[in-house]
Design goal:
Blueprint (H helix, E strand, L loop, with lengths): L2 H10 L24 E7 L18 H9 L1 E3 L2 E2 L5 H10 L3 H4 L24 H6 L4 E6 L18 E4 L17 H6 L10 E3 L2 E4 L7 H16 L4 E6 L20 H23 L6 E7 L26 H4 L3 E4 L7 E3 L3 E2 L3 H9 L15 H4 L9 E6 L2 E7 L2 E8 L21 E11 L15 H16 L11
Parallel strand pairs: 1-8, 1-9, 2-11, 3-12, 4-5, 4-8
Antiparallel strand pairs: 2-10, 5-6, 6-7, 9-10, 13-14, 14-15, 15-16
The structure holds magnesium ion.
Magnesium ion binds next to loops.
Length: 484
């Protein structure tokens, strides 16, 4: 029987948005003889509609599709922010980026001239797992501070190989004025003087981005082979499909979906290499692999930007297309295959991994994640019923169960917005609208956020206002790392 369909049917009865239940104890991890390995594969700016199993009609993603068939496809999975730096801070700490100073409404990500980064007192997944017997390694885009003490090796990763910020930064002067699409089509990687680092040393500059996906992957494969006899955590964070696009020779002009399709198909190849390596080493059944993206597609780059599928909005914004990401989890023989429609977020990986690794979460700070393991093992109802949609340090929207209220809306990243705003501009200039009565959508019925039903549900709006107020009271002011 087709596992995906049987799983989908089995999971339908479990959908119960609005129920908070963290008490459920998963049964299957008890059968683990040793703590599970974790592999996070994180794409950069991949949209909700960019892979086969999430509906793209002409991009071939057999390995990602296989993850869905053998594992779980999460259809309502979110990131902590709709741009890179805060999204990554949330993923690795389990805390909303506003709590660590890694969110700003004025400078939304770190740049090469930034002096801040993820503060040393923040505890990353690599740190907590590393302190509990795990081997740890990262390859790919970091974007949480490119100077010590903010580098991956300062935050618990034993090794690092990658570009420390976005692949379009450090643009060389002579190429200003030439479009990033043209530069990509000419394969002009020299136009971006981005460094490639090994641990805390620059080993290549500019990084040859044409082979970057392949090299990140081989690095991760090498570390898996090295660590195979011990528990490990590998974080493989691709720099692509963030523009400028690049792909290696073998993938050039292969996809029906053009250049962007080539790039996604190479990332899919990378996923296949990881799965195949785990199989060759005989450790698939003790390794949880999650694939997701740091934020939605960057729609302003024509066919070099991806697609949000049925979702409204894109990278940088707080409509669904900015923050709901295509997510797949595979752990053969352990998790219940199927389509999961309950809510999950990258903030939940910290408590979930800690639970699976039998590691206590520190109790000296606020965590914003939930243990998703009941849903992995098919033995629980929803564990999360709320999603915060932050724009920098402000809550623009809140999802509670099936309802989402937008208090403020704004044009997306890279349109005429606060992309590089360093001084306040008027709301009109940045396309910002404050809604006295929030827009309200039922995301289960209306995933494209087209039908405002605020007038029908004042009580829902009141409840969400109350939750927002309570939440904001829990956020303590900290030093802003992105404005340093
Ligand atoms: Mg991104």
């Amino acid at each position: 029987m087709n596992k995906l369909s049987s799983g989908a049917i089995a999971m339908t009865g479990l959908i119960s948005l609005g129920v908070v239940n963290q008490a459920c104890t998963p049964a299957k991890e008890d059968t683990q003889s040793s703590p599970p390995n974790f592999v996070i594969i994180f794409a950069d700016d991949m949209g909700y509609g960019d892979i086969g199993v999430f509906g793209h009609p002409t991009i071939r993603t057999p390995n990602l599709d296989r993850m869905a068939a053998e594992g779980q496809k999460w259809t309502q999975f979110y990131v902590a922010a709709s741009v890179s730096t805060p999204s990554r801070a949330g993923l690795l700490t389990g805390r909303l980026p506003v709590r660590s100073g890694m969110a700003s409404s004025r400078r939304r990500v770190l740049f090469p001239d930034s002096n801040g980064g993820l503060p040393p007192e923040e505890i990353s997944l690599a740190r907590i797992l590393g302190d509990n017997g795990y081997r740890t390694a990262m390859s790919g885009k970091w974007h949480l501070g490119h100077k010590s003490p903010f580098l991956p090796t300062d935050h618990g990763f034993e090794t690092y190989f990658g570009i420390p910020y976005s692949n379009d930064m450090d643009r060389v002067e002579e190429t200003r004025g030439i479009s990033q699409i043209t530069l990509a089509e000419e394969e002009n990687f020299d136009a971006y003087n981005v460094p490639l680092m090994r641990d805390n040393e620059i080993v290549e500059r500019p990084a040859d981005q044409r082979t970057i996906t392949k090299r990140y992957t081989e690095e991760a494969v090498d570390r898996i082979r090295e660590f195979k006899d011990e528990p490990f955590f590998i974080y493989l964070a691709h720099s692509l499909p963030h523009i400028p696009l690049f792909r290696s020779e073998e993938f050039k002009d292969q996809s029906l979906a053009g250049f962007y399709g080539d790039v996604i198909e190479e990332i899919d190849w990378s996923v296949g290499r990881i799965l195949e390596t785990l199989e060759e080493e005989g450790i698939s059944e003790n390794t949880l692999v999650i694939f997701t993206s740091d934020n939605g597609h960057w729609h302003i780059f024509d066919t070099h930007g991806g697609l949000g599928g049925v979702l409204r909005g894109a990278k940088g914004g707080t409509f669904e297309g900015g923050m709901r990401v295509p997510t797949l989890i595979r752990w053969p023989g352990q998790i219940e295959p199927g389509v999961i429609m309950e809510l999950g977020t990258t903030l939940d990986l910290m408590p979930t991994f800690c639970k699976l690794a039998d590691v206590e979460l520190p109790d000296d700070r606020i965590y914003d994640g939930y243990d998703l393991s009941p849903l992995l093992f098919g033995s629980g109802n929803s564990v999360r019923d709320i999603v915060w949609y932050y724009w920098g340090t402000e809550v623009y929207a809140v999802r509670k169960g099936e309802y989402k209220a937008h208090f403020i809306t704004q044009l997306e990243y890279g349109t005429k917005t606060a992309h590089f705003v360093t001084k306040p501009e008027s709301d009109v200039e940045i396309g910002r609208t404050v809604h006295d009565t929030p827009l309200l959508f039922n995301l289960n019925i209306d995933p494209s956020e087209r039908h405002n039903i605020a007038g029908n549900h004042p009580e829902v709006i009141e409840e969400i206002r109350r939750l927002k107020k309570e939440h904001l009271a829990s956020v303590e002011p900290v030093e802003n790392q992105l404005e340093k």
